[in-house]
Amino acid sequence: MDLLTKITSILVVLIAIGFTIFTNYPAPPISPIMYQWQTWGSYLTFKQFKIFYIDKQINNGTKTLLCLHGFPTSSFDYFKAYPFLIKSFDRIVFIDFLGMGYSDKPTLHSYSIMEQADIVQSVINHIGLDDFHILAHDYGDTVTQEILARIRDDGLNLKIKSVSMMNGGVFPSIHSPLVIQKLLHLPVIGYLLGKLNNKYTFAINLNRVFGSGTSPTMAEFYNFWAIVRHNHGYRVFGDILAYLDERFEHEDRWVSAMKNTKIPLQFIYGPSDPVNPPPFDVMYHKLIYNPYFDKLDENIGHYPHFEAPEEVVKRLNLFLQKKGL
Q1: pLDDT tens figures, 232-286
Q2: CATH number at residue 53
Q3: Cβ neighbours for 90, distance < 8 A, ≥ 6 positions apart
Q4: Rounded CA gap, 51 and 231, in Å?
Q5: Residue 246 lies in a domain
Q6: What is the spatial distance between Cα 217 and Cα 2, in angstroms, rounded to a whole number?
Q7: Which one of 59, 68, 80, 239 has the fewest CB atoms closer than 10 angstroms to its CB?
Q8: For residue 314, what are the domain limits?
Q9: pTM
Q10: What's the rounded Cα separation, in Å, for the pair 26 and 160?
Q11: pLDDT tens track for 205-226
């Protein structure tokens, strides 16, 4: 065996050992605020999977809000908005989608928007949710589009009083996924990249979608990562990203549902968003009849409810007031 072969063999062994250690390190401990969020929650069994949700009754009134989160994070995204939301709503419900947050994260599973919509319906039925508003973000916007389509096209009987969306790729033709999202979606490369994800690479990539001066602190990135890392969620990123293809496959159904819904519809938009760049607002006004579109300050990016939580709730309240809701 020549020297080059020996060196190559040693390098392969070292890389294999490093990969094994790197991809099997323990999950980080959760912070007190994350612990509180988790203790608020309950679990619903959907098929064989556990779905995490929070059902907070704040006051004795009936004004109810259902919050749906984005990819790749969780309902915890709303923790900054929560103190402002409880001033306006009597009951707030949060759901962690399958594969994210504190819900189960099965591997070798065919994740789909259709199934996530089924999960939302199951939680709604389980807790007896009626006459409620929806506040959705990103991935949650797409799930909401499917729910609207079911109401319009399939006769689904849900009493949704209003829908407010934030920075979701509801128009696939102008949606610009990050390079890392495209790579994670690839069959083999995506699997390896998912396994190699860590809090530093996660923070670097997630930080790209925030606006100028609105990035999370390292402690906040740590919280996001800890929830992603829970039950090895980072390993199923590539599988969940199948929704990028679904958006094109069901574009007509989902865009039409927004265009033709009779439910009052609002879009709250952070313009400093690389995955939904400024042509988005032009497209929205072009396609949506009588649009109610709230464009935030230029420095707000992809996570408006995290970057400007008080302003988002203010815009939500103004929308509901103008609609008499």
Answers
A1: 888 888 899 899 999 999 999 999 999 999 999 999 999 999 989 888 999 999 9
A2: 3.40.50.1820
A3: 57, 58, 59, 60, 61, 62, 63, 64
A4: 13
A5: yes
A6: 51
A7: 59
A8: 30-322
A9: 0.89
A10: 41
A11: 899 999 999 999 988 998 999 9
